[in-house]
Every structure is written in structure tokens, then in C-alpha cells.
Amino acid sequence: MNAAQASGGRLVVVSNRVAMPREVATGGLASAMRAALAERGGLWFGWSGKVTERPQMHRSHEGGIDYVTIDLDRADYCDYYAGFANRALWPLFHYRPDLVDYQRSHLEGYLRVNRLFAQKLAKLLRPDDVLWVHDYHLIPLAAMLRELGVRNRIGFFLHIPLPAAELLIVLPRHRELLGTLASYDLVGLHTVRDLRALENYFLHEIGGAMRPGGRLRAPDGRVFQAGVFPISIDTAAVAQAARDSVKLPAVQQLKESVQDRALIIGVDRLDYSKGLPQRFAAFAQLLEETPELRQQVIYLQIAPPSRSDVPEYRNLRRELERAAGHINGKYATPDWVPIRYVNQSFPHEVLSGYYRAARVGLVTPLRDGMNLVAKEYVASQNPEDPGVLVLSRFAGAAQELGDTLLVNPADLTEVTEALVRALSMSLRERKARWRAMMDVLEKHDLTAWRESFLEALYATRLVQAPSPAQAPAAAPPSAQSAPPAAAPAPRASSSQSKVAKRPLAAPSRRHE
Ligand SMILES: O=P(O)(O)OC[C@H]1O[C@H](O[C@H]2O[C@H](CO)[C@@H](O)[C@H](O)[C@H]2O)[C@H](O)[C@@H](O)[C@@H]1O
Ligand SMILES: O=c1ccn([C@@H]2O[C@H](COP(=O)(O)OP(=O)(O)O)[C@@H](O)[C@H]2O)c(=O)[nH]1
Questions:
Q1: Residue 20 lies in a domain
Q2: Domain span including residue 394
């Protein structure tokens, strides 16, 4: 039993995306948290995925998990999700400042929805609950909960990359927004590179200071812990699902249609961060430069549409349709089509069978927080005849899966050469590389990720204070920015603080 279980407190997960039972969860965060909560039970709070005129709150209980979700009205959805989160934060954090479309109204909507989440959630909390907030949609949530008097332990995990400070400062009001990270007890990131970016930003842009043990002190004295926690998959379950997948008609049909050709597979949300145009171009280059492979390979790209209300995503879809049509038109023969481009999502069981049927897993994002598909591909392989992963060095997964073929996705020739190498790799080398990566994934699986994060969250402080269920509705001012009890820190003088005095706040919208 770990510290979190020993406490007896509920785990309360808060994320924009909630994977409801029986829904296909296309997105790493949703699939990972569903598995984590299924193991331990708890409450999952977030957006229902619905956009309605009259937003409602929905409650249900299944498989040991309480689900509480809220709808968004059109304005909130547009400003918060399709606006600030996915047109400002997402492109910037994925090193695409050229795609950032910052609008003040979007930021206001983002703050409005965070405040709405804080108000609804605060009423549901118990004193010993441990909160785990996820991702870039909800950066200021802890600060807003603290304003409402919530003193519970709150951890935050960023699922996407944290870019260098030079990029973060492009965001208007970045100090006010990112400074609120100090209201968490623990901030987790996927890689050491992300952690260094956070430390560097806090030191040089916020005016914070490093404290012993990987803690950071904000200018107002708040201290929080920061650490690296690479997310993972339920390795044993994925491997078992892949073994069982032979029975699935969908998997049998794919294998029959491929016959004895080599299958290359890609599985990605239709997102510009995933490097799909470059990947299609690399595959075209492979066919052009290696004519002997024509007829011998099939590239299956599964790409469920994502964030279609954001123009860049719609443009990408059109671009890929054109590219796939062009490549197939040029190289296809009456009995062979080189690219199978599928804008549909599949359940995990089917995907694991598809991964196992593929000689090559092609995962070439331009930037990616982690990329769980890379890990799922490895875990799904047949140990006696494993396929080869070709992986972008800019995916967080590359930090752990160094035994794969690492490529720079912008270098089409490098990707093409890696594909040739993967397709011709000896069984002996494939087995050796696969075993090394599987050792990593068996040790660092989803349970290990969750436990290490929660252990670290528990270690941040020892004293619990009452939650709003017991505390007055509005906490006294002194409680609002108190540093963690086990980590008291001197308060900086107000002149030292680079964080703007005006708090990030927006009028809250009525919500029924
Ligand atoms: O919720 P959506 O807007 O439909 O997007 C799906 C998710 O995409 C992102 O996933 C990230 O989390 C993965 C797990 O840590 C990680 O492997 C991947 O690299 C990230 O891109 C996003 O961060 C989630 O919030 C979304 O739910
Ligand atoms: O048709 C699909 C496509 C993707 N996924 C899942 O969606 C997640 C994608 O996570 P990843 O970290 O690779 O990228 P993200 O989409 O979160 O950026 C993985 O668990 C995939 O198995 C799925 O279940 N069905």
C-alpha cells in the first residue's frame, strides 16, 4: 500500500477531457487516466464534451469511478477550448509560435471556464481528497481553488512539452498565467528537458528561486515541487490485448488484405504537431527511390479528426487528403494501393492487433509531450517476431525508447533510410531492440507513473487543512497564498516580485 492509499483520501482527477465508460478515448491523457482511476477508484471531474445552450452538470458512477462532468455553452467552448487552449497554448507549447492566434477574449473565456470548474469542484471536495489536475487547459485552476479556500494537496501534470523561455515569453500576460503554477504542491512534466524549461522560466522570467530538493520558490514566497514523471501505458494489458487480438474479425481482415506485404502503421490524432505531411512525403520518397519496395509495402495511417473547429486542423485535413490522393494516384496499381488513409478511431483492442500486424510503427511528431502510441506499438509486438519502431527524437517517448530507430522528422531522407533499415532488419536485431525497450516499459508502466506522482505529491507536505466543506466559503487572505506547511519560505518583498499585482480573474458566467 502506498502513501496515497494509506491516507484513505479519494483521488480526484480533473481534466478537460473525460473518457466516459464505453467511449473510445482517442488521446493519451484520457486513456491513461481511465486506466489509473479504474485501478484505484475516485472522482473524475471535467468537461462533458457537450456544447449546449443551457449547460448542465452530469453525475454517474461506474467501475468504481464517480464521473462529474459539466457542459459548456458555445461562447465558453469557443474562447476556452477552441480559442486560448488550442490556438494559443497548444501551438506555442509545440514550438509553433507562427500558428499562435492570441485574442484577449479567448484568454478571458479560458479564465472564466477555469473559474467555473473551480466553483463547481470546490463544492464536491472532502478534506482528505487529493487533487490531480491535468494539462494546459487548467493551468490556473489551483490558484482559483485556493482563492475559494481549498487547502487540499493539489498536483498538476503537463501532458504537452514545455518550451524554452524564449518561446513562453511570446504569450501575452505569460507571467500572470504561468506564475499560478506556484499554487500547486507538485508540478509534473514528461522529460528533463521540460523540467529545465520550467526552472529556467521561473528563475529568469518570474523572478523565482531554486530551493533544495527540486523545489521552486515564487517571488511571493509560495514553494512548489517540480519533477519528471514520464507517462506510460498499462504494458501487461496492452501486450495481453495484442495476443488476444488474433480472434478479432477487424484484425483478421486487415491481415488478409495485407497478405504477405510489409505493413507500416501510423496512429495519430489529426494534429499538425504529429508531422503527418512530412511523414507522407517521406513515404512517397521511399517509393520513389526504392522501386523494388513498390507492391511490397502498405502504409496504414489511422488519423481520427481532432479539434475540427480550429482552422489549422481543418486545413491539415485537406492537405493530407490531397497528399494521400496524389501519392496513391502516382504509385497505385490495380491490385495495390500504397497508402490507406483512415479518418476513423478504433478501440484499443483493435489497435493493439493492428500494431502487432505491422512490421514497422512510424511515429514521427514534430513535437510531442510523450506519444503513447509509440509505447503501445512496442508493447503489442510478438516477442518471437517483433516489428521495428521508427520514432521522432522530438517525442517525449524518445527519452526512454533509445533502442529504437530515432529520426529527425524534418529530414525526409533520414526517415526514408530508417524505413529501409526497419524493413530489412534481421530478426536477431529486432528481438534485441524490442527486448531492451520492453524492459523499460515493463518497469515503467502506467501504475508506476501514477504511483510515483502520487508519492511525490504526498511527500510535498504533511499537514492537511480543512476543505470548503468545513471551511468558510471565502478563506482569509492569509490562507490564499500560504506556502505548503512542510516547506515554509520567506516572503519576497513586493518590489522583488515580477508577477503582476492584478490577479488573473474573469467574471464568472452563470451555470445551471
Ligand atoms: O482532448 P483533445 O483536444 O481531443 O486532445 C487529446 C489529448 O491530446 C493531448 O495529449 C497529450 O497527452 C498524452 C498523454 O500524456 C501525451 O502522450 C501526448 O504527447 C500529448 O499530446 C493533450 O495534451 C490532452 O489534454 C488531450 O486530451
Ligand atoms: O483510433 C484511435 C487512435 C488513437 N487512440 C489512442 O489515443 C492515444 C493517443 O495518445 P498519444 O499520447 O499518442 O497522443 P495524443 O493524441 O494524446 O496527443 C493512444 O492511447 C491511442 O491508442 C485510440 O484509442 N484510437
A1: no
A2: 235-444
- Model confidence over 14-73: pLDDT tens digits? 999 998 887 776 667 787 788 778 877 899 999 999 999 999 999 999 988 999 999 999
Tens-place pLDDT, residues 340-358: 999 999 999 999 999 999 9
**Cell for 154?**
493539489
pTM for the structure as a whole: 0.91
CB-count burial class (<10 Å; 0-12, 13-18, 19+) for 421? middle
Q: Residues 195, 161: contact at Cβ < 8 Å?
A: no
Flag whether 11 is in a domain: no
Supply 237's cell numbers: 494489458
Same-domain status, 464 and 340: no
ipTM field: 0.99
Positive or negative, the Cα torsion across 195, 196, 199, 200?
negative
Residues with CB under 6 A from ligand 1: 17, 27-30, 32, 135, 159-160, 231, 306-307, 368-372
Q: What is the CATH number of the domain that holds 273?
A: 3.40.50.2000
409 domain residue, yes or no: yes
Active-site option among 159, 190, 348, 511:
159
Q: List, edge to edge, every strand of the sheet that includes 130-134.
A: 57-62, 65-72, 42-51, 11-17, 130-134, 154-157, 186-189, 223-228, 215-217, 209-211
Does 23 map to a domain?
no
